[in-house]
Specification:
Length: about 675
């Protein structure tokens, strides 16, 4: 068997202990069966073996991440998508047309296949418009993500007759901004003309509508603040433990009206589903989610009619899950056959009002009959309370005793009284009042959109990041990288050599003498906090149980980083201190310290909670950072520091971490 011969030869460069790693031993049986795996957590040498075997046609089925299908030219006979959503760092979204075309374009090998097959596995409902957008949509727009760093700024400032402003003006980012400005101005003019054409009424009526609208908006803002306090788990959670509570729900500014609570769940999970799952678990997601039955209409029925509509109506009751992507709130004039109760997953922030009423709900609501009974019960409750459902009192029932809340309640009551006694409410018929206010609101919003577009066009015509550049220069002056005349100082020359990690923090550590009192192993372990970017679970403290000889240097690093963050904030830059400190991750310190002490990789790996590939990637980036600090130490004439980090580089660079590539 060719694979049995190739595999041992390929891993021959590894030491005996490294060849016994779980990954190394587990991959061969799969490869013999023609199955391959390729992802960022694999050892680099194993990824290369998989790539070579796949290119030679020895792997029949390869399970790979997006990186393989987009970044490597490896055509296949068939491409299978197991999902059409991906985690982009913020949310799970549909793959774009460009991503789909790039990945599906791997199907079909030149000279071997007359066509390529693409199989799309769907595990959720996909609207035709979404499918069309993925298959035939426009290519992804090419947008500049150009950002200037302190390292770049210092290197530009050290060169005579080169201004950083010139680089910004000549950037593709600036070109794109200036190109968009004329279209924005034209759009703003169109909106201004549209606003002028909106008829409100006489001059007196316009003033009355303006007063009423402004008071109404103030009342809306106060009610949102009240709702934010009411929605705190401490206040409302005790009323959401039992199913059947009637809740007034709004999702994405769309009011769905009264719905019925079926379950209240606390967020759980600790990072299953790979890197994407870990990122999702660590995001600022709500702590509690609610399952609520809401009356809604499938958006599909707004797009079809006739026979197709009647056919789909027969199957509509079978759908019991709802989302704002596919469902809209029911309207009074909707056909009753179109309205159905569906189960939505919402958060505490989606609750507008909490009723004092509870109704019986069946244990399972996924059947049409159960949801129909719930719908009939809600209708019956509304008939019994024609003037509106009784609500839980925020002070008596919810027990809110905050002074701020009482002040907000008084303000809301005063504004509501002023609105009810306003001339527009007292002397004008309700129909005319609504017409005047809505017309004024439409005109006001249209003018506001035009103003924002003009402001945006004006900012696009000025130099991009001009203000940020001034603030960054201020930071460099404040921490001593440049003098008042903009001349590079010793600190600045040091930071010019560092681009793998945060150059300001590394430079401050050097000049604060933090590295002088540490051993070579401690220095390298401390720097690993800047190259290890994998997050652990929310409730995990990476410093728990850490030895003092590592914890103390890390605490010093945190102090230095905090000072740098505060200087940036003081100079007006948009820096979140907590986020800035969180980028220094001590999760790999003990493992790196052990590696520098000569411990075998198999034992070092047991000290981490990450994949082998992540550990190697961290160590390789760390070696690059150590090399840059060595160059920086030489540039400023610090022989002791240069020697220390030269030794550090030698301690890192050994065995499996820096084994030769199979491509060389």
């Amino acid at each position: 068997d060719l694979i049995t011969q190739v595999y041992p030869n390929a891993i021959e460069s590894l030491g005996d202990d490294d060849q016994k790693l779980p990954q190394v031993q587990a991959l061969l049986p799969l490869l013999k069966r023609g199955i391959g795996v390729h992802h960022g957590g694999l050892l680099p040498i194993l990824k290369e073996i998989v790539e070579i075997l796949f290119s030679e046609g020895l792997i029949k089925a390869l399970f790979a991440t997006e990186t393989f299908s987009i970044g490597i030219n490896m055509p296949a006979k068939t491409v299978v998508f197991t999902n059409t959503r991906k985690w982009d760092g913020k949310e799970f979204r549909w793959v774009t047309s460009g991503e789909y075309i790039q990945m599906s374009g791997r199907a079909g090998r030149r000279g071997k296949d007359d066509r390529g097959l693409v199989i799309q596995m769907l595990d959720e409902k996909m609207e035709p418009s979404v499918c069309k957008g993925i298959l035939y949509g426009d290519p992804d727009p090419l947008n500049s993500s150009y950002r200037i760093s302190y390292n770049m700024l210092l290197n530009l400032m050290r060169v005579e007759d080169v201004e950083p402003e010139f680089l910004l003006r000549a950037s593709f980012h600036q070109f794109q901004r200036e190109k968009e400005a004329p279209a924005l101005i034209t759009k703003a003019e169109e909106l201004e003309n549209e606003a002028e054409s909106i008829e409100v009424g006489s001059t007196e009526e316009v003033e009355l509508a303006k007063e009423y609208y402004q008071m109404d908006q103030q009342l809306l803002l106060i009610r949102r603040k009240i709702a934010k306090i009411v929605q705190k788990p401490d206040h409302i959670l005790k009323f959401l433990q039992v199913p059947g509570r009637l809740l007034d729900i709004s999702i994405e500014s769309q009011s769905f009206g009264w719905g019925v609570l079926t379950a209240c769940k606390k967020k759980t999970g600790g990072g299953s589903g790979g890197d994407a799952g870990r990122l999702a678990a660590m995001s600022d997601a709500p702590a509690y989610t609610l399952e609520v039955l809401l009356p809604c209409v499938d958006r599909h029925f707004d797009e079809v009619d006739g026979t197709e509509k009647s056919d789909d109506l027969k199957d509509a009751p079978l759908l019991w899950r709802g989302s704002v992507r596919f469902c809209r709130p029911a309207k009074p004039d909707d056909d009753k056959e179109l309205v159905s109760m569906r189960l939505f997953t919402v958060t505490l922030e989606n609750i507008d009002r909490i009723s004092a009423v509870r109704i019986f709900t069946p244990p399972a609501v996924n059947t049409p009959e159960a949801r129909k009974k719930v719908s009939m019960s809600v209708d019956e409750v509304k008939k019994r309370f024609p003037e509106g459902l009784p609500l839980l009192d925020p002070i008596k029932d919810l027990g809110i005793e905050e002074d701020e809340f009482k002040i907000l309640m008084d303000r809301a009551e005063a504004l509501a009284n002023r609105l009810s006694s306003h001339k527009l409410a007292a002397e004008y018929p309700e129909v005319d009042r609504i017409r005047l206010v809505q017309s004024y609101e439409k005109r006001h919003e249209t003018k506001e959109k035009a103003r924002l577009l003009r402001d945006k066009a004006r900012s696009f015509q000025t130099m991009a990041m001009k203000d940020d550049l001034k603030k960054m220069k201020r930071v460099l002056k404040k921490i001593g990288h440049v003098d008042a005349n903009g001349v590079i100082q010793t600190k600045g020359r040091t930071a010019c050599e560092i681009n793998t990690a945060n150059e300001l923090v590394v430079t401050e550590l050097i000049f604060a003498g933090v590295f002088k009192s540490l051993t070579v192993e401690q220095c390298v372990a401390l720097l690993s906090t800047m190259t290890f970017d994998e997050r652990g679970k929310d409730d995990d403290d990476p410093t728990a149980g850490m030895k003092s000889y590592l914890l103390n240097p890390f605490n010093k690093l945190q102090e230095v980083a905090k000072t740098v963050a505060q200087v940036q904030v003081a100079c007006g830059l948009d820096v979140d201190e907590d986020e800035f400190l969180a980028q220094f991750n001590p999760g790999m310190m003990e493992a790196v310290f052990a590696w520098c002490k000569g411990v075998k990789f198999v034992d070092v790996q047991k000290m981490t909670g990450s994949f082998e590939g992540t550990t190697i990637r961290t160590l390789r980036r760390l070696e690059e950072l150590v090399r840059q600090i060595t160059v920086a130490a030489k540039a400023i004439g610090d022989k002791d520091l240069e020697t220390k980090f030269l030794d550090g580089g030698k301690l890192i660079k050994r065995d499996i971490v820096f084994c030769n590539s199979l491509y060389l």
